[in-house]
Amino acid sequence: MQRSCVTTTKEPNWGSDPSDPSARLPGPATLGRATLPGGRHAPGILRLADAEAVGEQVAEWLLASRLADPSLPLGLATGRTMEPVYGALARQFAQRSAAERQRVRLQWCSFNLDEYVGLSSRDPRSFAATMAAHLVTPLQLAAESVLLPRGDGEDPAAEARRYASLLESKGGLGLQVLGIGANGHVGFNEPPCGPEVVCRCVALTASTRAANAFAFGGDPAQVPAQAISLGLSEILKARRILLVATGGAKTAVLRRAFEEPPAADLPASWLQFHPDVTVVADGAALGR
Ligand code: GLP
């Protein structure tokens, strides 16, 4: 397929006024893996034409990571941003040789970020059901190689601890794919949230329940009030992070996450403390 890559890591435009120097990331010389004052790092930025191109690129990296370096689990996300990623992954997987498909199946191990409290994996609105439909079935993966917290356990706090120790027993996350919520959440780490929080049961904000109501007949009241989510602590220990964002609705939050000092009211901003973050975004999310 034709890659519609426009430019990489040069002069990012977050939709800000380019004449305002305070509204810009450091220039090309310091972008990439540059270290900023206070141990912060500027992200690499891959700017692609549209959500489809973003999906193809991220899927390529996911597949490559399972074939070339399967030693650590993948970290996976749900959300509308990820739909083109899993669509592209299924297509790219189908084009691989039978031997490669089998290697991917044997070497697959992924941990999703989160799950709604109260929903079983059989509930079509659960993230487990989403992953089954968009990943397990098309790639014919072993269901037990695609891990999520159990949403329907009797003790969600204990389930969060079990999930965190299972991840730790596998060595932590290798490549972590993240989306970003309009309020700056990653996973379901809702603001305010520090970088030290671990996998736990979280209360969802009204804005997040409204944003996810599309999967619940459009009614925010039907969206579970709690979720189990990996914390910033597990996320920041991933070896490499891809933050995926598409569409103009993400421009402002992306800009704040990487241009302003890290702060609890914007959980994604803690990613500035990770040395290997790449923002993979379309022109709309970066501001045309
Ligand atoms: C969700 C998820 C996140 C996701 C984010 C953005 O609620 N818990 O993992 O990245 O919100 O969602 P979307 O891609 O639909 O904008």
Strand numbers in spatial order across the main sheet: 1-4-13-12-9
| Largest sheet features | 5 strands, mixed
Q: Write the element-wise H/E pattern from the N-terminal end onward.
A: EEEEHEHHEEHEHEEHEHEHEH
Mean pLDDT: 90
The percent range for strand residues is 15-25%
Counting helices, strands and paired strands, the structural category is alpha/beta
- Low-confidence stretches are 1-32
Determine the oligomeric state from the structure: single chain
Distinct ligands? 2-amino-2-deoxy-6-O-phosphono-alpha-D-glucopyranose
User: Percent helix among the residues?
Assistant: 25-40%
Report the end-to-end length measured between terminal Cα atoms: 24 Å
Number of helices: 9
Shape: globular
Number of strands: 13
Notes on the structure:
- The chain is of the alpha/beta class and 288 residues long.
- The protein contains nine helices and 13 strands.
- The chain has helices at residues 51-68, 83-95, 98-107, 127-139, 156-169, 206-211, 232-236, 251-259, 283-286, and strands at residues 5-8, 35-36, 40-41, 44-48, 74-76, 110-112, 114-116, 146-147, 175-178, 200-203, 226-229, 240-245, 277-282.
- The chain is globular and about 45 Å long.
- Residues 1-32 have low confidence and may be disordered.
- Residues 77-81, 113-114, 179-181, 187-188, 208, 212 line the site of 2-amino-2-deoxy-6-O-phosphono-alpha-D-glucopyranose.
- The site of 2-amino-2-deoxy-6-O-phosphono-alpha-D-glucopyranose has 14 residues, from loops.
